[in-house]
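Exercise 7b. Backbone tokens:
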């Protein structure tokens, strides 16, 4: 059975022995995104207003942040499992991704803070994601080619998006100040899922995985870097958005994920070596909250807005069981 049922590289071998150890590492190539209400992108939008000399500058195209959306980045997954009896396992896995995107709006675009007089400068969007899952799994042999694994456990997740803007007093001048807006969510909760594997031939298998969690945690926003400045035309200009921290506790965030892939397992003198290639989709619903208006720093009207946090991309996994 351990030779004919190959799921996620080598899970079928759990039927051959009552105790097994498994360790694996995956290289992730993912693109993070914020979906819903354009949250996070309007920070760096250009808008119509007056520059430092009182000259009205047109919008020059709205929502220019589309040029500075998150890019694809490299991450990793580290996992370990122990099969403590035939058909049963406990699995621990940790995902990590950190991605930085740098860019600029077109020359002449104005900074979209709540004070006139500044041009948009250098932009940076940094995203960090960590997820730790503990799962108890039960394997069900459907027939000589099909294997089902049901699992339940706990997920702990942390998401952090940092938006940095360096506006300028003059279009060709150096940055005048650095504003930072951090939007984060951290939470934990129960996790459930099902994995299905189908053995093909010669060590190859296909698999599909689906899982979901219900996380309870804290959504937080921290705004810093703003201060009043002196304009030759207006005198002292007061920013309408102060530096502050807003926190919303007991936020419930559903998390959904799916994987599709192909696996190959090769029997060694000591255990099995497996390789997976697959695609991952993941979505944290309404996990990110902004309290400074529609978008991050677009107005001083305190209208909360929420956004999903999405991840999708490829992964390559190497796993050893013995």
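Sequence design result:
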């Amino acid at each position: 059975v351990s030779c004919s049922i190959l799921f996620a590289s080598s899970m079928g071998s759990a039927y051959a022995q009552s105790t097994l150890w498994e360790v694996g590492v995956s290289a992730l190539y993912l693109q993070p995104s914020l979906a819903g209400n354009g949250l996070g992108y309007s920070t760096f939008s250009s808008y119509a207003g007056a520059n430092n000399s009182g000259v009205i500058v047109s919008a020059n195209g709205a929502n220019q942040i589309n040029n500075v959306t998150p890019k694809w980045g490299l991450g990793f997954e580290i996992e370990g499992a122990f099969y403590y009896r035939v058909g049963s396992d406990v699995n621990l896995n940790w995902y990590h991704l950190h991605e930085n995107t740098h860019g600029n709006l077109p020359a002449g675009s104005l900074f979209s803070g709540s004070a006139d007089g500044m041009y948009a400068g250098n932009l940076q969007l940094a995203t960090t994601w960590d997820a730790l899952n503990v799962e108890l799994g039960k394997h069900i042999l459907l027939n000589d080619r099909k294997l089902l694994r049901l699992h339940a456990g706990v997920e702990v997740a942390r998401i952090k998006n940092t938006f940095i803007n360096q506006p300028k007093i003059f279009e060709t001048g150096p940055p005048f100040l650095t504003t930072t807006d951090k939007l984060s969510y951290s939470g934990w909760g129960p996790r459930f899922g099902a994995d299905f594997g189908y053995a093909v031939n010669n060590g190859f298998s296909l698999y599909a995985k689906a899982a979901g969690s219900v996380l309870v945690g804290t959504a937080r926003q921290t705004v810093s870097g703003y201060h009043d400045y002196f304009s030759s035309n207006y005198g002292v200009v007061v920013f309408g958005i102060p530096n502050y921290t807003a926190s919303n506790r007991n936020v419930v965030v559903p998390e959904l994920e799916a994987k599709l892939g192909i696996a190959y397992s090769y029997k060694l003198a000591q255990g099995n070596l497996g390789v997976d290639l697959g695609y991952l989709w993941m979505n944290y619903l309404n996990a990110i909250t902004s309290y400074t208006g529609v978008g991050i720093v677009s107005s001083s009207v305190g209208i909360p807005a929420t956004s999903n946090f999405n991840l999708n991309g490829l992964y390559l996994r190497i796993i050893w069981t013995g």
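Instructor comment: Residues 142 and 148 are 7 Å apart (CA to CA). The first strand starts at residue 20 and ends at 35.
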